[in-house]
Structures are given as C-alpha cells and as structure tokens.
C-alpha cells in the first residue's frame, strides 16, 4: 500500500509539472523566474517522493526476506521437534532474550536468527562465517549479533546450571537463513543456515549431553520463560 501511494504521489507531481509547463506556454506575462521557482519546487517534491518510494521498496524487500527466512527456520525446528527435541520460542530470562531454545538429550541450544538479505551479486552463494569474534556476511561485518548471542548463552547457562545444581553448557547458534555456511565444531558459536540446521544436535560434544532428570527440570523452567507456546 505504501509503495502504491508513493507511486501515485510521483504520478501526481509529474502531472503537475506538465500542467506548469502548459500554463507557462499559455501565459507568457508571468515572469520567467516565478516559473523557475515553481518548477524547482515541483522537481524537489518529485525527488523527495521518489526517495520515499525507493525506501518503501527496500523495506518491503527486507520484510519479505525476514518473513521467508523465519518461516524456513520454523519448518526446520518442527523437524527437530519430530526427532525428539523440544523447542521453545522467544525465551526471556534475566537480561537474555533468545529467539528459540532447543532442548534434547544432546544438550541445550540457544538459537538467534540473523535475517539479512543476501546480495544479488553473489548468485545465491553468499558466505556467512565467524572471524575474530564477529559475524561476516559476504565481506560485511556484523558485530552486534555475536555479542548478543554470547550474552544470551552465558545468562541461560547460568540460570540452568543453578537450576540443575551442576554446570549445564548451552551451545550458541547464529542462524542466517539464505546464506552459505560451513560450520565447524570449534568455538563458542555455530553459524548455520536453514539448510544445515536440521543437523544441529550433531554438533554438540558428549560433556554437554543432558540426563533425564535435567531435561524435566529444564523443560519446566523454559516453559515459564517462553513467551510463545513450545513444540514438544
């Protein structure tokens, strides 16, 4: 709707410019500088309207990509659920706000979705990777998502460890839908796309596996901390 209104505004201004030129031709008694000022204002208005149309188109593309990316991630989370894991959405505890938390016998995973449009020039092969503690997307650095993910991981691990009475590791996962990723088992964070997210639990180490009694207590805690109904 916003794009349509912007296009209408540009059309109206363009029509107004044509009428101004016609009026100038029919009424030569009006000073040329007056017509120049009016024309300049009309052109400026057209430029502003065009800019807002461009911004609206960009925002619409970004919103469409974000929605499609989150939908793709949601489908994979359903598959993880069918494989015997529990999935909690929008988990809030202390200062942490986590998009999704996956819990299963192979541990706890805190997922934060980083939805960024893939540049067209990369032809669908844009790479996402961690370097020097920062997330790099096709050569552009994104420092904030890694910092938030690290804080979320630490806070959630602390809360679950206190609950269980022993250390409960939490694996941090940055999900970048639409990007090409080559995850490795090292480091504090995994970078995955929707294409390899289904293999999430295979990336944990045995020391992070949960006992049955831990799973029960963690499920109850996350059920209270989740703002959205869980998949179980």
Which sheet architecture does the biggest sheet show? 6 strands, mixed
Q: Can you tell me the residue ranges where pLDDT is under 50 for at least 5 consecutive residues?
A: none
Shape: elongated
Average of the residue pLDDT scores: 79
Description:
By secondary structure, this protein is of the alpha+beta class. It has 2 domains: 2-61; 85-231, no CATH class. The protein has 4 helices and 9 strands. The chain has helices spanning 2-26, 32-82, 144-164, 212-225, and strands at 86-93, 96-104, 107-113, 128-131, 134-137, 140-142, 170-175, 189-192, 226-231. The strands form 2 sheets. The chain has a 6-stranded mixed beta sheet, sandwiched between helices. It has a 3-stranded antiparallel beta sheet with strand order 4-5-6. It is elongated.
What would you say about this model in short?
This protein is α+β, with helices and mostly antiparallel strands and 232 residues long. It folds into 2 domains: 2-61; 85-231, no CATH class. Helices cover 48% and strands 22% of the residues.
Label this structure with key terms.
alpha+beta, 2 domains, about 230 residues, elongated
